[in-house]
Design a protein that fits this description.
The complex is a heterodimer.
Chain A: H1 2-10, E1 15-18, E2 21-27, E3 32-42, E4 48-55, E5 62-64, E6 68-71, E7 84-94, E8 101-113, E9 123-134, H2 143-169
Parallel strand pairs in A: 2-9
Antiparallel strand pairs in A: 1-3, 3-7, 4-6, 4-8, 5-7, 8-9
Chain B: H1 2-24, E1 32-33, E2 36-37, H2 38-56, H3 63-85, H4 88-113
Antiparallel strand pairs in B: 1-2
Helix pairs in contact in B: 1-2, 1-4, 2-3, 3-4
Classes of the chains: A alpha+beta, B mainly alpha.
Chain lengths: 170, 120
């Protein structure tokens, strides 16, 4: 329900984040230090202050470069002008001894108005993080990617069969 | 046409190999070279093959070679962006390019095989 609230709010507020999820796969027994970035932008005409935190079992593997920052006023939701944005660096540190398992959680950004702002409510946005520690560094593709791979294989086979048939007819 | 067809076919196979590496040995794309990780360089090499084939075959029918030249940088970006941003939508775009090129090359071969009434 909490997650539902986060994503319902994300559709109407001025704060946007990209990407909205991380799926990370790491081979068990390997020490991994990896940095990623999340871009947060503000389209509202008021400046906002943003707090960042990590929740869930994933929190022991993620550290954020900054836990709070200011986003200057943006051009407005309907403006075509570029939004003011901020890059937040996150570092994944996975020690060698972590057991094979799946860890998930969220990086939560809470928006608050700064002194010049008029926003009266707190708004939260979440970035979902899935960490898979397995025997082999294997990514679990979503169904649509797997379907597209199958289509590519079929088209490759089809094209070579067509070419063979054309040569045979000649 | 044959050279272009086999070029696209080899390109598709290489794209498929890259996608399998992405899925099963993600870590091989981790090392960085000149500021970019191997996901960029491997996609660039694969796309350079398509670019070279497209340039070589420009003398014949223009549609596929020009399309090949246009999609080369796009495909490199899509694979690199997909790996670095963990966004599978970019990967879908990367896989769609060889599918479209292959289907077009099959279609063009078919049109040549069965000419229209007007062409007759």
């Amino acid at each position: 329900m909490f997650l539902l609230n986060i994503f319902l709010v994300s559709a109407v507020n001025a704060l946007t984040i990209s990407p909205n999820r991380f799926d990370i796969t790491v081979e068990k027994g390997k020490e991994v230090e990896r940095s990623e970035h999340i871009q947060i932008s503000n389209s509202a005409t008021d400046p906002i202050h943003v707090y960042a935190s990590v929740s869930g079992p994933i929190s022991e593997f993620i550290s954020l470069e900054k836990n709070e920052f200011d986003l200057p006023a943006g051009p407005g939701s309907h403006s075509g002008l570029p939004r003011k944005s901020e890059l937040v660096k996150l570092i994944f540190s996975i020690p060698r001894e972590v057991p094979e398992s799946k860890y998930s959680g969220e990086i939560i950004f809470t928006e608050q108005p700064t002194k010049g702002g008029v926003l009266g409510t707190y708004v939260q946005l979440g970035v979902k993080v899935n960490l898979n520690i397995g025997t082999m560094a294997k990514v679990e593709f979503p169904v649509y990617v797997t379907a597209m791979i199958i289509v590519l294989i079929i088209v490759i086979i089809l094209s070579i069969v067509k070419e063979r048939m054309r040569r045979f007819n000649e | 046409m044959n050279k272009l067809f086999y070029g696209i076919w080899v390109y598709s196979i290489l794209c498929l190999i890259l996608v399998f590496l992405y899925g099963y040995y993600t870590e091989i794309f981790e090392p960085k070279l000149f500021g970019y990780n191997l996901s960029f360089w491997s996609a660039l090499i694969v796309n350079l093959i398509l670019l070279i084939v497209a340039i070589i075959t420009l003398k014949g029918p223009k549609l596929l070679p020009i399309l090949g030249i246009i999609v080369t940088p796009i495909s490199t970006y899509l694979f690199y962006a997909s790996w670095t941003q963990m966004n599978y939508l970019y990967l879908i775009g990367f896989i769609t390019i060889p599918v479209v090129l292959l289907l077009l090359s099959i279609g063009i071969t078919q049109i040549k095989k069965y000419p229209t009434k007007k062409q007759i």
